[in-house]
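Repro case for the chain-ordering regression, as requested:
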Amino acid sequence: MARALMSNPGRWAGVGLILLGLCWTLAAQVAWAGDAQHFVRPGSKAATLGGCVEATPFMRRNHMELIKHQRDITVHQGIRGARYSLAGCIDCHVSHTADGQAVAINSKQQFCYACHAFAAVKVDCFDCHAAVPRGGPLSAAASGQGATSERDPRGE
Amino acid sequence: MMKHPDETIDQGRRDWFGLAAAATAAVAAPGVILHLASANTAPEAQPASSAVRWGLLIDTNKCTSGCRDCVDACDRENGLDLQTKPPTEAPTAWADQKAVWVRKVKLADGLTGRVTNLPLMCQHCEHPPCVDVCPTGASFKRADGIVMVDRHICIGCRYCMMACPYQARSFIHQPMHDQLTRVPRGKGCVESCNLCVSRRDHGLPSTACADACTAAGKGAIVFGDLKDPASPISLALKAMPSRQLREDLALNTGVRYKGV
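-- result from build under test --
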């Protein structure tokens, strides 16, 4: 094979192109990952994890499709806690103040705001949904824990 | 016969394809196996089923005047106790407008003077008028009989509030800030009792109001599956006379009352 390659300059060019493509892809991935670190808030659970529920470039473009699809399944069929839940996004991406208070995820310089302000896309989610984790998937009464601090803005 | 030179087998090329196929399989296999293994049987992963129909049986003989335990439990369960009066609103108007999913109602018979107390919430009709009139499909009935509002498509027109014979629905007039994660609520949407839908989806046995009534020692509210003949609610319905409120409307309500 090696002899065949050496005897064919066209093949060399092909191999070169492929290598160039691979290098470019790698560089792009690294750049994207670095970018993502910029928007992921330090101190959030997401900052400690290697990746989101899907690849970061995919999440950037399609997160709204994922949660929009899952919301219908949750509301109409009652399937909860699946892979693309908004509560999951908030749990993972919310950051905390020095005294441990969760900061609303859509407030200035927080995870949602950072891109949405740049893209000039209004986020309607938090008109209804809690912007910090507040209370678990079940009430304290339902999960048999008695009175807990579920009304505390720190939640959980 | 001699082979044409071009037809000789390039072993290096074959090895390369073999290696590539093996590498692809090694990358893909764990994903496939994980996908097969994660067929989730947890209750929250199962869709609501029409094999059940959730309902309540309320014994008004056991319900007492002045007790609000079911209402308070509902408020805590769904974060309704987190709503605050807007500064511009008069206290009387707020008492009228704030969201309430369970109301305590007192019925007085003018002839005999007999007074009956009962909690009134969404009756989870089999043929819900609120679903009939909804122009967007936001008001809907789940497979398990729970009537609820999909706030994502509710436009806040409030036709359902007009149509409901039980005044079971509330409208949120002001921006909300302190919602619970499990109960998203917001301005411009209608809402009502959803039989503690997050508890249903997690396969828990009861509702907040029924639990509170039992804890208070009254036991006036029984929750259960109306389609299961062996469930406590079905046995109680079979044993004792009960009624639907406004049974003349033939809505086949999921909430039944004894002693009215």
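Ordering looks correct now. Residues 40-156 of chain A form one domain.
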